[in-house]
Amino acid sequence: MTTKNGTNRTKNGAEAGGDVRLSGISKTYGSFTAVRPLDLTVPQGSFFALLGASGCGKTTTLRMIAGLEEPSSGTVFLGEQDVTHLPPYRRPVNTVFQSYALFPHLDIFENVAFGLRRRGIKSVKKQVGEMLDLVQLGEQARKKPHQLSGGQQQRVAVARALINTPRVLLLDEPLGALDLKLRRQMQLELKRIQTEVGITFIHVTHDQEEAMTMADSVAVMNAGRVEQLGSPADLYENPRTTFVANFLGTSNLIEAEVDSRSGDDVVLRAGDCKLVLPGARCSAPTTAGGKVLVGVRPEKISLTHADEAGAIPAGRNRITGTIADSSFIGVSTQYVVDSPVCPEFEVYVQNIDRDPRLVPGAEVVLHWNPAHTFGLDAAQDIDAGIETVEEEGAAA
Amino acid sequence: MAFFRWLNHRLVVVAGLLTLGYLLLPNIVVTVFSFNEPKGRFNYEWQRFSTDAWTDPCGVADLCGSLSLSLQIAAWATLGATVLGTMIAFALVRYRFRARGAVNSLIFLPMAMPEVVMAASLLTLFLNLGAQLGFWTVLIAHIMFCLSFVVTAVKARVMSMDPRLEQAAQDLYAGPVQTFLRVTLPIAAPGIAAGALLAFALSFDDFIITNFNAGSTVTFPMFVWGSAQRGTPVQINVVGTAMFLVAVLCVLAAMVMSNRRNRRRAS
C-alpha cells in the first residue's frame, strides 16, 4: 500500500501543505487547445474558485491538478513537490466529482471509508463516524447511495474526499445538480467546512454568484486562459476585460473617446455626454482621441426624472435617456433605459422611495459618482461574456 | 358484453397467465412424467404413479456418466468463456484500436450463424488439424460459441458504467489493481454473472455442435437423443426436473436475499 504523500503527511493535512502552483501548464487534444499555458498560484488554506463558461478549460485545469489528466506542457507543484507525473492515487489531493461518482455497490460508510482503507488504515470506524457527523449523515451510514437525496449524496462526496485530509480539495461543479435553495444551503455549508478544516479548496463553477459567495479569490477563465484573478469584490468593481465585466454580474458599457486629462481623472466624450473616469480605474491606454469602453454597474446608477434634472448634484456623470422597460423585483426595480450613447442601459434602483413617474416612456437622467466608473480597452468584443451566461442559464 | 368488459379490465393479467402457461407447460409435463411407471420402453403415456426413477436416478446405464461429463464441460466452458469474454468486452468498450469495429461485429457471428454450419466447419477444422475428437474438442467448441453471449452481456454493463467511478477510486488512493478489484469488477459483476449463466445453460444443453465434434464421447443431450431412438428412461425426466428445480431455487434464493436486504435498509 502506498501512502500518497509519504512522510509529508502530518495529523493536520493543512500544516504540511504549501501553495498549489501551476507553472505554464497547458492541455491540447489533437488540434484543440483546452488550456493555454497557464500560471496560477493558489495560496495554502484559501477557498479558490475557477470560474468560467462550459468549455473554458476550468475542469481540465482541475483534472490536471488531480492527476486525472496529464498536462501537455508545464509543471504542477504542491508546495515544493513536483507532482506533474504522479498518478492520481499518489497525490495528496482529493476530488469531489461532478454528479458525485459515489460507488453504487458500497454503502455510505464504505464509500467514506474507501480512501482510508486503500491507505491501509484498519480501524476506520471512529473517523468515518466523525466525518459523517460533520456532514450530518450519521443516520444514513448503512444506506446505498441511490437511496439518498441529491443533497445528501453531495455531502457524502465531500465527506469521502475530506476524510483523507488532503492538502487540496478539488470540487468540480459540486452543486450543479442541486436545486437553487439547496445550492444556497450547500454553499454556506461548504464554506463552513472549509473554514473549519482549513484545507485549500479549489472550486470549479460556471455560476458567478456561487464563486463570489464562497471563494476568497476567483480566477475567471475564458477560452483556455485566465482573464483576471482577484477577490470577488475586486473582480466585480474593477473588471479589466469586457468578458469579466459582463460575465460577473451585469455591466453597462459605453463606447467613448478620450477628450482630455484633468489631474488623475480622464475626461471622455460619448455622443454629447461628458463622462469622467478615474485614471487608476482604466485598464486601457488613455491617449487623447483614443477609444475607451466606459463601464458602470447598474446598481451604482441613480435615476431622476428629466423634470428634476436641476436637482442632480454637480460633478456626477450624467446620461439622458428614455425608459424602455421596467420590472419590479421587490427589493429593487430594474429599468432598461434607451439612451443615444448606449442602446440598453440597465439600471437597478433600490426600493426606497418609488417615483411614480418612472414608467416606460418617461424621459430620465441617469447619473452616478465618477468614482464608480471603470474603463476598458475598446479593442475587445463589447458583448464578450454575455452570450455564454445566457447559454449556461438555458442549459441549467 | 359483461364478459368482454371483464376481459377488457384483466387483459394484461390473462395474457400474462397464458404466456406463463405456455412457457411452463413442457416443464410440467416433464415433471409429471418423472413419476410415471411406463409400460415398455417409451415414457410417452401415463400409466401409474411411481417414485422408482427418483430413488434410483443412475439406474440407467451411462446416464449419470454423461450427466457428469456435461456438467464438467459446462463448468469449464463457462469459466473459459466468462474470463475471455469479460476481457474482450472491456477491451471493446474501453480501448480504441484498429480492428475494434471488425471485432465488434465478428463477435456476433457465432450467434448469427446456423449452428449446424458451425458444427460442420469446426469438425472439418479439427480433422484437418489432426485433433482427436472428445472432451477437449467439445470444450473448445463450447467456449467459442459461448463467448459471444458473454461479450454481449458484459459489454452492455461496462458501457453503462460511469468512467468517473474509476477515476474517483484512483483519486482515493486505489492503484490500478485495487481500482479494478474494488470498483470495476463489483460493478460489472451482474453483467458477468448474467453472461456466465447464459454460457452454462448454452453449453449444458448444446447438441448439434457437440454431436459433430464429440467423437465417441457422450454428453447428456447426446445420451437423451441416443436413448430416444430406443426408448426413453424415466430418469431423463428426473434429471430434467431436478435441473429445473435447482434453477427455480436459485432464483427464489436471490429474490429472498434482495428482499431482505431492501427491508433491512428501509428500516
From TrEMBL, chain A:
Main EC class the enzyme belongs to: translocase
GO cellular component terms, semicolon-separated: ATP-binding cassette (ABC) transporter complex
Catalytic activity, as annotated: ATP + H2O + polyamine-[polyamine-binding protein]Side 1 = ADP + phosphate + polyamineSide 2 + [polyamine-binding protein]Side 1
PANTHER family assigned to the protein according to its UniProt record, in alphabetical order: SPERMIDINE/PUTRESCINE IMPORT ATP-BINDING PROTEIN POTA (PTHR42781), SPERMIDINE_PUTRESCINE IMPORT ATP-BINDING PROTEIN POTA (PTHR42781:SF4)
Family as reported in the entry's similarity comment: Belongs to the ABC transporter superfamily. Spermidine/putrescine importer (TC 3.A.1.11.1) family.
Keyword Cell membrane: yes
Protein name: Spermidine/putrescine import ATP-binding protein PotA
Annotated source species: Streptomyces apricus
InterPro entries xref list: AAA+_ATPase, ABC_SmlMolc_Importer, ABC_transporter-like_ATP-bd, ABC_transporter-like_CS, Mo/tungstate-bd_C_term_dom, P-loop_NTPase, PotA-like, PotA_ATP-bd
GO MF terms, alphabetically ordered: ABC-type putrescine transporter activity; ATP binding; ATP hydrolysis activity
Signal peptide: none
Keyword Cell membrane attributed: yes
General function of this protein: Part of the ABC transporter complex PotABCD involved in spermidine/putrescine import. Responsible for energy coupling to the transport system.
Residue ranges annotated for the ABC transporter domain, each copy included: 20-248
Keywords of the record: ATP-binding, Cell membrane, Membrane, Nucleotide-binding, Translocase, Transport
Subunit note: The complex is composed of two ATP-binding proteins (PotA), two transmembrane proteins (PotB and PotC) and a solute-binding protein (PotD).
Lineage, broadest ranks: Bacteria, Bacillati, Actinomycetota, Actinomycetes, Kitasatosporales
EC number: 7.6.2.11
The organism's place on the tree of life at top rank: Bacteria
TrEMBL record, chain B:
Membrane topology: Multi-pass membrane protein
Stretches assigned to coiled coil: none
Family: Belongs to the binding-protein-dependent transport system permease family. CysTW subfamily.
InterPro entries: Bact_Polyamine_Transport (IPR051789), MetI-like (IPR000515), MetI-like_sf (IPR035906)
PROSITE patterns: ABC_TM1
Name of this chain's protein: ABC transporter permease
Entry keyword annotation includes Transport: yes
Positions of transmembrane segments: 12-35, 73-93, 105-127, 133-154, 183-204, 234-257
Keyword Cell membrane: yes
Superkingdom: Bacteria
Keyword vocabulary terms for this entry: Cell membrane, Membrane, Transmembrane, Transmembrane helix, Transport
One Pfam family, short name: BPD_transp_1
GO CC, any one term: plasma membrane
Gene3D superfamilies in alphabetical order: MetI-like
GO terms for biological process, alphabetical: transmembrane transport
Localization per Swiss-Prot or TrEMBL: Cell membrane
All copies of domain ABC transmembrane type-1, residue ranges: 67-257
Source species of the chain: Streptomyces apricus
